[in-house]
Amino acid sequence: MPGVIEMIGWGGMIVLLTAYFLRHSIGPITHALFNITASSMIAPICFVQETWPVFALQIAWGAIAVRDLIKAMRTRHQAPTDPATEA
Predict the structure, then answer these.
(1) Which residue range forms the structural domain that includes residue 54?
(2) Structurally, how many domains does the chain consist of?
(3) Cβ atoms within 10 Å, residue 52
(4) What is the pTM assigned to this prediction?
(5) Residue 2: phi, psi to the nearest 5?
(6) Where do runs of H (alpha helix) occur along the chain?
(7) Contact at 8 Å (CB) between 28 and 65?
């Protein structure tokens, strides 16, 4: 019977695949949140099983998603520019 951490890891895999399949139909903030959630759910099982390359990948994936989230939030709060006045 799988343990709790393994079940969380499987849930993270489902979140990750959902983010991938919905990438063109959800906004960048939602996409980044999906990826942050997925990596934080997959990383613990990688740590427990000592699969260090995959653990490092999850840390990097989460860090990239945090960067993307910050970028998307900044872009969202900037005033829209009028392309006609940018010359």
Answers:
(1) 27-75
(2) 1
(3) 10
(4) 0.82
(5) -65, 145
(6) 4-21, 28-48, 52-77
(7) no
